[in-house]
Amino acid sequence: MNVQAPAGKMTALDFSSDQEVRWCPGCGDYAILKCMQRTLPQMDVSRENTVFISGIGCAARFPYYMDTYGFHTIHGRAPAIATGVKLANPDLDVWVITGDGDALSIGGNHLMHALRRNVDLNILLFNNEIYGLTKGQYSPTSHPGTRSPSTPYGSVDRPLIPCRFALGSGARFVARTVDTAQKHMPEIFTRAHDHKGASFVEIFQNCIVYNDGIFAEFTEKPVAADMQIHAVHGAPLIYGKEKNKGLRIKPGSFELEAVTLGKKGVTMDDILVHDQTSEVLAYMLTSLSPPEFPMVLGVIYENPVSSYERDVHEQYDAVHKEKGASDFDAFLKKGDTWKVN
């Protein structure tokens, strides 16, 4: 274990364990890990109060590499175990690390209820649209036509869109970022941590072995400016190298359309202003995808309400105050009993 740095002077090294990081060379997980280790000291948190909980998959090795508390649990069940940790000790900072297969296939039910209940968890979903650990089978987010060991002739499944799933499950914080966005990711991690309640962050993450370049159409440097739009609350939804493109409500409908300023009479007055408290707008933004539209990144939706563990403990305290301390032994002996000879 690393030597604890003085309070307020923690560094990335203080959050890095002595375990050898073992992902495929070039995997996007490295960038996410380094970003997390670098960002936590900036949040002024302590290792002793931080917990990373993962399920199964490549991303699930994350807790080994963080010099904090952590659990490497079972397939799809990380949200359930994290809920138990948060209920037992609401003061802990609990991060859930999961992948698109782990979270949205076998773990879909657990993820849905963690979001619905609004447990104060920071849920990071690494989305590479493939099962990496088990050798490249298609996942719930894979594009139609994906050729893999489990779909040699191409997937015919309609993919699940993680952020739309989160919104549909009742999430009160939904955001997106990219594994290579080393300036953007820290901001999103910090916003997720500051939010009280379930925070859902989708991270587009490249699998260099089984699904290399699947997000190239909006992540590669030559196209990123024209194919990414960064949503900022209260700011117009504009993008492009020249900042001359934007989103507006299509006249005569309730649909979004991509427009160019100066063409067909389009002005800044026509451009939609982002409102992160609008669930309807969030659903529309998370439905957009290249090549017709840019990929929307940033905090797409944030509208906090009371968190689950807070409500549970407030209810417990109220009952305890009204009825006094309970006697578990008396409870076990209460009512009819039978003696078996």
Overview of the molecule:
It is a single chain. The strands form 2 sheets. The protein has an 8-stranded mixed β-sheet, with helices on both faces. A 3-stranded antiparallel β-sheet has the order 8-9-10. The model has no long low-confidence stretch (mean pLDDT 94). Helix content is 30%, strand content 17%. It folds into 2 domains: 12-228 and 275-308, Thiamin diphosphate (ThDP)-binding fold, Pyr/PP domains (Rossmann fold); 236-273, no CATH class. It has 12 helices and 11 strands. The protein has helices spanning 28-39, 62-65, 78-88, 100-106, 108-117, 162-168, 184-194, 216-219, 221-227, 279-286, 308-323, 328-333, and strands at 50-54, 69-72, 93-99, 122-127, 173-178, 199-204, 228-231, 238-239, 245-249, 256-260, 295-302. With 341 residues, the chain is of the alpha/beta class.
Give a quick rundown of the structure.
With about 350 residues, the chain is of the alpha/beta class. The chain has helices at about 30-40, 60-65, 80-90, 100-105, 110-115, 160-170, 185-195, 215-220, 220-225, 280-285, 310-325, 330-335; strands at about 50-55, 70, 95-100, 120-125, 175-180, 200-205, 230, 240, 245-250, 255-260, 295-300. The strands form two sheets. Strands 2-1-3-4-6-5-11-7 form an eight-stranded mixed sheet, sandwiched between helices. A three-stranded antiparallel sheet has the order 8-9-10.
